[in-house]
Design brief:
two-stranded antiparallel ribbon; 72% helix
Length: 524
């Protein structure tokens, strides 16, 4: 196993999956389509000329053209959630250099418009938005919508959409769906809001988590569904600016007929956020629709959505819980400590040192009865690359699974799956002497456990997030199996057996998602 092979595998798998996904709708992301083709073509050319550097070429391009822009987009999205529009504009001016396509080049102007609106400089905001509108990229359509929002012209926005026959195209754009649902709520067309959501629920629920939860928030807030709105604001929208969360909580209460909420909304008149000031004024001047007027079928749509979102919360990683993944952090620390001991006893690639510390070896385990090695071998690693890859994987999957299973179920799954991986790695090779070390069997056990808990969530609760996570696990196991077959000195049997044991053990120990949610728990 070397870095060239690992980078090649990451670049090919990531670019290939991105290419397959984008081919479903190439017109909406031509830039990313071009990037994925460029990476694959460059790797292919490098493999023909100098195979020894093909992985570095693909990995370098993937890091610069995919990983960095994607991480940048996430950072910008967090800034947007916190209403830090000036910060988002500065960041996008940097990251657009790595991906100047698909409207990313125009994003700084768009965020600058939002920043100008926030500080009350309406002339500058209109100028920025107008400049964006003149472009032919998708951001131009969004700028047009935000210009209506800037002026509080929700009725005009809906008329503009209908005159141009654009209502159907809105459903395929997650960002525009949110604004369209809000426009229907702002104009008192609650029935239209619920009906639009119901007609396009599959598209909306398949969008990115933030856009999906914003759409759901519009449904809950304007229909006065307190529990549903709170689920959204404490879920993917937990990073929302506090005053925005307060505004939508007050909107939900006002829709329920709570007149005290009018006083809370009036407090936003003193907000330094001009956009929020405008929204609050409209909220008090334009009455919201009465949720009591919804038909039983429409009310059932809202209730069903609340139940689905309640189920989704069981499978969402919560930042606070991730920070308290003490068992995972202890396992990482123990692995690093053992690695330091390896280095003092002759080096992490010194077989004598590894055996002295408890590495698994065919004869020692099968013929000399040193079964304790199936546990100790999990905490030993062969070289810096080995421990680095394993500890990163442990931090990613371990923290999520520790929250889901609970500490005292999580630790046995880790240890038993790892022990099984070491045992099954040496069992078929009784006539050969091999040495087995590494936490990868344990980590594959966690991935199998993650798949088991996700499967239970999908079977018992039909949680969409659980199904998506199960699909991710299947892709990881498939990719790992192919990688194992192509890489010498890597035990595919150990990895696969660890995943299977983790999967089965979790089905026995942790019936995740078994708790049924009663209607009272999701009541308004």
């Amino acid at each position: 196993m070397d870095m060239n092979n690992i980078l090649a595998w990451i670049a090919v798998l990531s670019s290939g999956l991105m290419l397959l996904n984008l081919l479903k709708s190439p017109s909406r992301a031509r830039g990313w389509l071009a990037v994925s083709l460029l990476i694959l073509a460059a790797m292919g050319a490098a493999a023909l000329v100098r195979p020894g550097i093909a992985g570095y070429v693909g990995g370098g391009l993937w890091s610069a053209l995919v990983l960095a822009p994607s991480l940048g987009t996430q950072v910008i999205a967090r800034a947007m959630m916190r209403q830090q529009f000036s910060h988002a504009a500065r960041l996008s001016a940097v990251f657009r250099l790595l991906h100047p396509l698909d409207g990313y080049w125009e994003m700084p102007a768009f965020y600058s418009a939002l920043a100008a609106e926030q500080r009350g400089d309406m002339a500058a905001a209109e100028r920025y938005f107008t400049d964006c509108i003149r472009t032919s990229c998708p951001i131009g359509d969004m700028a047009h919508v935000y210009l209506f929002r800037l002026r509080g012209q929700w009725e005009e926005y809906l008329r503009w959409l209908r005159e141009r026959g654009l209502e159907k195209t809105v459903a395929g754009d997650s960002a525009q769906s949110t604004l369209y649902l809000r426009a229907l709520g702002e104009t008192g067309d609650l029935s239209g809001l619920i009906d639009f959501f119901q007609r396009h629920r599959e598209l909306i629920l398949r969008s990115d988590p933030v856009s999906m939860e914003l759409c759901a928030l519009m449904v809950f807030a304007f229909s006065g569904h307190r529990r549903g709105a709170e689920l959204m604001l404490e879920g993917a929208l937990a990073g929302y600016a506090p005053e925005m969360k307060d505004f939508w909580r007050a909107t939900t209460e006002l829709a329920r007929g709570d007149e005290i909420a009018r006083e809370r909304i009036a407090d936003f008149f003193t907000s330094g956020n001009h956009a929020l000031h405008v929204a609050a004024r409209r909220r008090l001047e334009k009455p919201l629709a009465d949720p009591g007027a919804l038909s039983p079928e429409q009310a059932a749509v809202v209730q069903r959505l609340a139940e689905e979102m309640e189920h989704e919360e069981h499978y969402r990683a919560r930042p606070r819980a991730l920070a308290r993944a003490y068992v995972t952090y202890a396992l990482v620390a123990l692995n690093l400590l053992v690695f330091a001991v390896e280095m003092t006893l002759g080096g992490s690639t010194n077989e004598a040192a590894l055996l002295r510390l408890g590495a698994g070896q065919t004869s020692l385990i099968l013929y000399h009865g040193e079964w304790w090695r199936v546990v100790s071998a999990q905490f030993l690693h062969y070289g810096w690359l080995h421990i680095t890859m394993n500890m990163l994987a442990l931090l990613i999957f371990g923290r999520m699974l520790e929250e889901r299973l609970g500490r005292w179920r999580y630790l046995p799954v880790y240890l038993v799956a790892g022990a099984a991986a070491v045992f099954f790695a040496v069992l078929p090779l009784r006539g050969q002497e091999i040495t087995v070390v590494g936490a990868s069997g344990s980590i594959m056990g966690l991935i199998g456990a993650y798949g088991a808990s996700s499967l239970l969530g999908w079977v018992r609760e039909r949680a969409r997030l659980a199904r998506a996570q199960l699909n991710t696990v299947l892709v990881i196991v498939f990719a790992q199996t192919i990688f194992d077959q192509m890489t010498p000195q890597v035990s595919g049997i150990a990895h696969l057996s660890g995943a299977v044991v983790g999967f089965l053990l979790t089905l026995l120990l942790a019936p995740v998602g078994a708790r049924a949610t009663s209607p009272r728990e999701i009541a308004r």
